[in-house]
């Protein structure tokens, strides 16, 4: 009796395992073609914790973007399931914000109205929309540009607005598909720092697709490396660099060690793809 009582106390006071914010369970994708079928993604499983910044890295055509589109609900998985807070994803939804590589701003709306567009659809008052837009304009460093139109902005500025718009809608997860891939190297480095600043404030869960090894290390808590097509998870590499991160960390010995490891993993898969 006493032993059982002690067991009950221990069980009741034991820390409960938290449900991951995002769970990808045995998700696979087969595309049908005129000549038959192409397996783009083998059954893949991994999870992302609440507030975690995860990057997915892999050779071209390995299924990175396919994974992201399935999580976004833009692509239907052939097998498996995606769960957000334990609830299965069955299509697009406001709980996921998406930032693409291409600039997806509305050209007829100002910067401020682009940022607050989703809030307007939700019926949020004008004052609240203005307050939210003002906050994110300050966060992304575009104060003074609120009345500009997308055509008046540089590529980097457009992506800042796209990120601000996604965050303004307060999604549970931010999905980013190589958002800086079209930018020049200097602008790309600046945008990485802008994104980290926004993430450190919002603590949103982020799933970020990239083919840039340095970018994946600089941004992430964990890097998921995928195999060559048909893609599957090859290795998870936790990144133990101190936060908040400054650009100077890219010159550190630790950063170089992560870069060497990841380049080796990617090279192995890239060679398989051409052999």
TrEMBL record:
GO terms for molecular function: ABC-type quaternary ammonium compound transporting activity; ATP binding; ATP hydrolysis activity. Residues 22-253 form the ABC transporter domain. The complex is composed of two ATP-binding proteins (OpuCA), two transmembrane proteins (OpuCB and OpuCD) and a solute-binding protein (OpuCC). It catalyses: a quaternary ammonium(out) + ATP + H2O = a quaternary ammonium(in) + ADP + phosphate + H(+). This is Carnitine transport ATP-binding protein OpuCA. The keyword Translocase applies. PROSITE patterns: ABC_TRANSPORTER_1 (PS00211), ABC_TRANSPORTER_2 (PS50893). It holds the Pfam family ABC_tran. Keywords: ATP-binding, Nucleotide-binding, Translocase, Transport. Its EC number is 7.6.2.9.
């Amino acid at each position: 009796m006493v032993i059982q009582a002690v067991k009950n106390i221990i069980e009741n006071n034991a820390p409960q395992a938290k449900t991951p914010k995002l769970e990808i369970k045995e998700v696979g994708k087969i595309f049908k073609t005129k000549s038959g079928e192409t397996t783009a993604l083998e059954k893949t499983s991994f999870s992302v914790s609440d507030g975690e910044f995860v990057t997915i890295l892999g050779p071209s055509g390995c299924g990175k973007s396919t994974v992201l589109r399935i999580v976004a609900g833009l692509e239907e998985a052939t097998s498996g399931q995606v769960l957000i807070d334990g609830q299965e994803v069955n299509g697009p939804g406001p709980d996921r914000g998406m930032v693409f590589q291409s600039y997806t701003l509305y050209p007829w709306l100002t910067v401020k109205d682009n940022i607050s567009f989703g809030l307007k659809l939700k019926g949020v008052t004008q004052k609240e929309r203005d307050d939210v837009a003002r906050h994110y304009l300050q966060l992304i460093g575009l104060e003074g540009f609120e009345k500009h139109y997308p055509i008046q902005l540089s590529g980097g500025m457009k992506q800042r607005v796209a990120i601000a718009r996604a965050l303004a809608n307060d999604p549970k997860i931010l999905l980013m598909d190589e958002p800086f891939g079209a930018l020049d190297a200097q602008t790309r480095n600046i945008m990485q720092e802008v994104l980290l600043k926004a993430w450190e404030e919002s603590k949103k869960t982020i799933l970020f697709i990239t083919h840039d090894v340095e970018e994946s290390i600089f941004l992430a808590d964990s890097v998921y490396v995928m195999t060559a097509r048909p893609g599957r998870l090859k290795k998870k590499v936790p990144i133990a660099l101190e936060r908040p991160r400054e650009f100077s960390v890219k010159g550190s010995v630790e950063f170089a060690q992560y870069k060497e490891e990841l380049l080796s993993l990617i090279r192995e898969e890239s060679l398989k793809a051409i052999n």
